[in-house]
């Protein structure tokens, strides 16, 4: 036995095989073809952000554009959009208000706290 308890120090294969049985349960560290971490929200966040900027002063058109965007409202997306809006609290609020009207969606505690932070900036 080697010092590390995994066999002799010259048997590197044994040391590497001990990790082969482990399974990664999340995918947040997977990379894209460009070497960037995979982010399931990034394209939807940018699409929504562009819509918010384009139609921010015309609420009926904004709501129609969001509805027709093809973006599926899901857990985590609202937080990401609000963070993307940063200091533009009005944009964040417009999305916050629209998404609250979507069937099957309701804001959680974290989203309300984040919206308060956005307004406070």
From TrEMBL:
Lineage top rank: taxon: Eukaryota
Gene Ontology biological process terms in this record: RNA splicing
InterPro entries per record: BIR6-like
This protein's name: Pentatricopeptide repeat (PPR) superfamily protein
